[in-house]
Structures are given as structure tokens and as C-alpha cells.
Amino acid sequence: MTLLLLFTLVLFLGPWPTAAADCQVVVRDMSGSPLPSAMLVVTPKFLLPGTNQRAQALRADRDGNVECRSLPPGSRHIWAFKEGHRSVNGWIRIDEPGDFRLTIKLSPIGACKEETGEINLEYLRMPASSKSRISKQLEKFDDSPLCTPVAGSADEAYRFLWLRSFHPAILATVTFLKDGTAHSVVRELKRTGETDYKLVTHDRRGVDNNHWGAEGDPRSAEDYITYWKMALGKYLWKAPAEIVRPPGLDGATWTIEARKAGKCHVVSRWSPDASDAVHYAGSSILRLADWKVYPDEIY
Which of 162, 192, 223, 248 has the smallest number of Cβ neighbours within 10 A? Predict the structure, then answer.
């Protein structure tokens, strides 16, 4: 009965209008396997007949994928369900048009391990609003976005902006120079009052191979730098620019900027877990910069 009422509502309101933002909906189980024929109902915050604020009912194909024709900016309620699985629902907010992917995971009923479903909004390119926010944060470090054109800039560079609830903000940059060497700079923003900060710069002229392992390791500093250039870029360039999740009260924003051969990529996460490419990249940049962090400072 509920499903019939939903489809009646969609038919009454008419087809979804043309276009503001293209997206892809991906419906999976908790292990990542596709859920064919899963149902998805997308409802705007306000239902207004005759406008683009209309409900939309979608069905996943055999690969668990759904192509959205358009989703105008604004708040949307998502309700996903499939027989034999727990339904999941929640709100997402699309701040501006752009290509993005909506990933939904459903948990099976009767599973030994009860899990809560997930709804994640992934921007494939960083939205302009997020870029503006990052630029304002970099101003506190007397810096500008890494992708800003600079005369004689290095071929490849990675930067980690780490904003934490309980510890000083960190801006760590590793630059791979054209002569095969690398240079790192770490800036620390320490709070000195309710609204005042002190900027401390730790400049290291060179990245060495002190972290290869045992003393006397035959691998050279060049080997070390080549390894990390490959490791940093392996997953980072393919990672979604932003995964929008409800932020917690306490945590940290991890933002990585990457520049290589004239190309740029910016990715940001809220307290990513250790399996996330952003967590790996941020931790690696700190390691290359020889910046020591205690386990309780990482979140």
C-alpha cells in the first residue's frame, strides 16, 4: 500500500524536470555487492507541483546502478529499500550543480552482525563552495591553494591541511623537485587565545631515507623519494573529491591538494578511517616531513 501511494504521488507530480546536476546512484550491500531492483525514493524538502521540487521514484538495474537525469540544488530526503534488507533513509544537501555519485548501502535482515545502512554523497570534482572554504582556511597560514599558478613551480607537490578539534592545525607540504630531490615544509597554527593564533613554520631543506627501516639499508634517498611519489599518487588521483557525511561534534577535516604536470586534484574528508586514500596520503606527507604525531592526536 505504501509503495502504491508513493508511485501515485510521483505520477501526479509528473516527470522530473530537466537538469541542474547529473548524478549516479549506486546501491550496494554492506560488502559492496550490487543490489539489483532496489528501490529509491527521492523527495525534496518542499513538494511544489509545477516546479522542479518534485518527488522521484527510481529502480536500480541489475548492477545496482541508477542514472539520475537531474537533481537541482537543495535538500533531498532519500529512502532506499529492497526485499530482505533493512531500509535506510536520510537527508542530503546538494549545495550547487556538479557531477556527483550517491552511494547507498543496505544491510540484510537476519545477518549475524547487525549493521546500519549508509547514504554517502560523493562529489567527483570539488564544489566551488568547498574550494572557497579551503582557500579561507589557507589564508590563516598565509598561503594560497597549491594549484595557483606559480612561476618556476615544481613538477609535483602534495599538501596536507589538517584541522583538528583538540590539537593545533597543521599544513604540511612535500615538493618533489625536478632534480630528483624533495623538500618539505610544516606550518603549525597554535591557538593563543579565543580568537588569536600563532603561526609557526618548520622548514626542512630535503627529504631523506631515514625511515626505510634498519640502519644501513642500501636503498638510497632517491629510491625513497621515487617510492613515495608512486605511493602518494596511486590512489589519490582517483579518489572522489569530497564525501559528504554528517560531521560529528569532534573530529578533524583532512584535505589533500595534489599538483603534477600541470594537473590538480583536491580531496577532503571528515575523520577518514585508515583504509581511505586521504588518510594514507595525509599520514605519508607527515612521515616524509619527519613530523612526529602521537596516536591519540590522529582522528
Answer: 192
